[in-house]
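ATP/GTP-binding protein
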Amino acid sequence: MRYGLEHTEDWQGEEWSVRQISGGAATKHYRCPGCDQEIPPGVPHVVAWPSQGDVADRRHWHRACWNARDRRTVRLQRSRNAPRY
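Tokens:
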């Protein structure tokens, strides 16, 4: 199974659906909201979204960033015209 099993976690008073993505299933570039760095294809990572949200609310995180999300703030460093993966 390329995509991990989905489970739920509580974060900031909200229930989040979380799925581990294997390196083989990671085929596109994404931008991690935890560190504002790119997640290249082939890198295992986490996809998380509010359980009450929809597909557009999904965010791809580095595993370490997702695990440290309570200890850090979002660091948006990209310029206004930078691509948003």
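Residues 23 and 43 are 5 Å apart (CA to CA).
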